Amino acid sequence: VLEDWEMHLARRETEALFQEQPETGNQYLEDTLLRSYLKTHLPPKVLEEVHRDLERFGNRLVTKIQPLSWECELNPPVFRQYDAWGQRVDDIHTCTAWRRMKEISAEEGLIAEAYEKRYSNWSRLYQAVKLYLFSSSSGGFSCPLAMTDGAAKVIESLGIPGSLKNAFDRLTSRDPKKFWTSGQWMTERRGGSDVANGTETMARKQPDGTYRLYGFKWFTSAADSDMALTLARIADAEGQCTQGSRGLSLFFLRVRDEEGKLNSIQVQRLKDKLGTRQMATAELWLQGARAELISAEGRGVAAISNMLNITRIHNVIGAVASMRRMISLSRDYARKRVAFGKLLKDHPLHMQTIARMEVQVRGAFLLLMEIVRLLGLAETNLASQQEQLLLRLLIPVAKLYTGKQASAVAVEAMESFGGQGYMEDTGLPVILRDTLVLSIWEGTTNILSLDVLRSLAKSQGQVMAVFLSTVQKKLELASGTEELSAAVQRTREAIGNLQQFMAAVGSEQALTMEMAARDFSYSLARIYTGRQRQESQNHGWAGWEGTLNPTQCHPCHGRDTSHCPRLLQAPVSNLALGTARDPGTA
Ligand code: UCC
Ligand code: FAD
Fold it and tell me: Where in the numbering of this chain does the Acyl-CoA dehydrogenase/oxidase C-terminal domain appear (predicted)?
């Protein structure tokens, strides 16, 4: 009996030492940076209404929506190609929780808010904040919402033609019974980055003016969506198509008809993905899918770029939300987990690790807010030409940079839970997996870096002037604050490096700029968020960083660069950009 009693006591002791799981409460109320941003920027009347709604939404997220999110993870979509009698059905079955997410998205106006413009230029920002809070509890539903928003934006930018009025109303509806989501079918087997050369899908005009599409779409996310925007080449009477970008046009199509029958589309299979497994990504054969041409012929890429710019902003939202969730959990864990006789929060080194992640997410959050603030101004005709240029530049910069940041933060944060971080049923690996895609889809880091250059070229350099003058103004404001003086100084030095680099690139711009595109873009992100590393002043720290200058390295200008010994030894792209390096938490 005594032995039993001792065992009981020992067991109680062990159980008492067991750590509680990390939790988050109302994500709105707990996010001091978000709340202070809203307080500083929103007009008081708007703030009052928005605050009430966000507090309510924050509670709904933690009590009702978060559990659905886990259900989505546990019940990923299932594809059934044939029924029991051998009939081809191509049914993508989604779980109840996923379908509930669609209803909640409508009820909460997660798309509608931006188009109703109840708060004029602040509506976009308000929508983005709701999406940011929703993202990590959405069970992957953020993905269809991104594309739905993008599709609504394209249709709005076309002036909402009569034939698309129904679609627009549904995409922006608050009625769960009416609400539609959209897909974005761009990627084909031959290329997802090089869409201009990768697209083989052909469009044949029908006597009634509609088109039938024939081709194979290699990645189609949220394949359970109601409609899609997609690219195809219009065939002439002889069946010939114009190749390249100028041959691409944009089409609207319904995925299924009123009876739920697929629109001459066959689902080949669902992708077996590392993450985002809650959401169906399919390979689709278009076998004469009926579609409507919605851009001018040959202007498909330009027309769909309205969608890309919106979905890329959603990507930034997802990246910031992921970092915020990981860090919130990590902080909570540090308050509960004991190591070496004290809580993790009392170990300075552990707290330094968390603080470094916090700095990352804060910079990223403020960059996101800046973008949606500018977008709101642009959409209500309140943006100056300079603000429009800045918005065009900051979208790819933020997408590429925050995608990388989020991946690095997710890995670091996972480690902050020790072995538990690696355990599947904690849910932490889900966040990591879902985060890793953010730098791939919606344009990879390199492709977005080239888009940064595109925005520079298109504005004939004006955008850089706007960027620099905007940063200078922000620095002037900050320079009055003593605590910020060192950071202001470092940012000024980084701007100096950037200007020096641009001046030195001079006439050999094309190749150098292409090679430098990634690091150049990172520099823009770091400068805009005021995040310069002290180490960047020391050129020795990265081995090769800052050791070349652009005029030194062009033996192979205009030729195949792959064998250039200098390029193999030292990435030319870091020329003079002392601030560039992969975003990380170190
Ligand atoms: O991945 C996808 C969906 C994933 C699921 C959704 C998740 C959402 C986030 C959720 C968060 C949780 S959909 C597939 C995404 N695919 C891409 O992003 C494609 C990546 N490749 C590019 O971005 C390339 O740069 C291309 C395709 C745009 C390059 O095409 P071109 O035709 O070779 O490029 P051009 O000739 O330079 O551009 C054609 C026109 C030009 O206008 P004009 O002719 O007037 O000079 C460009 O200025 O398009 C214009 N343009 C743009 N305009 C190109 N890009 C842009 C842009 N970003 N903004 C404005
Ligand atoms: P590639 O274009 O072959 O690129 C391979 C590598 O080469 C990349 O690292 C890229 O950065 C680099 N590279 C390519 N060109 C250059 C260059 N000029 N300079 C420097 N580097 C270069 N697509 C859709 O259309 N709709 C969807 O719904 C969709 N959903 C997706 C869901 C998931 C989970 C994933 C992973 C992808 C999805 N995609 C979707 C596809 C996605 O957009 C593409 O995978 C992406 O754009 C990259 O295209 P790719 O896979 O063809 O890679």
Answer: 298-456
Q: What 8-state DSSP symbol labels residue 64?
A: I
Give per-residue pLDDT as tens, 123-134: 999 999 999 999
Closest residue CA from atom 56 of ligand 1: 305
With tokens 């899918």, the residue in question is 289
Residue nearest to atom 18 of ligand 2 (CA): 447
- Gap between the Cα atoms of 280 and 225, Å rounded: 10
Assigned domain for 514 exists = yes
What CATH number is attached to the domain comprising 290? 2.40.110.20
The residue out of 245, 269, 302 marking a domain boundary is 302
Tokens of 55: 């507090």
pLDDT at 519: 95
Q: Which domain holds residue 483?
A: 475-574
| 155 touches 167 (CB < 8 A) | yes
Q: Are 517 and 573 in contact (CB under 8 A)?
A: yes
Which among 266, 281, 302 is the end of a domain?
Answer: 302
Q: How far is the CA of 348 from the centre of ligand 2 (A)?
A: 41
ipTM: 0.99
Judge whether 35 and 28 are in contact, CB under 8 Å. yes
The pTM for the full model equals 0.93
Count of Cβ atoms closer than 10 Å to residue 544 Cβ? 12
Structural domain tally of the chain?
Answer: 2
Tell me if 105 is assigned to some domain. no
Helical axes 123-135 vs 32-41, angle rounded to 10°? 170
Q: Can you give the pLDDT at residue 5? A: 75
Which of 184, 190, 219 has most ligand 2 atoms within 8 Å of CB, for mutation? Answer: 219
Tokens 């970092």 belong to: 323
What are the tens digits of pLDDT across the range 513-552? Answer: 889 999 999 999 999 998 776 443 332 222 222 222 333 3
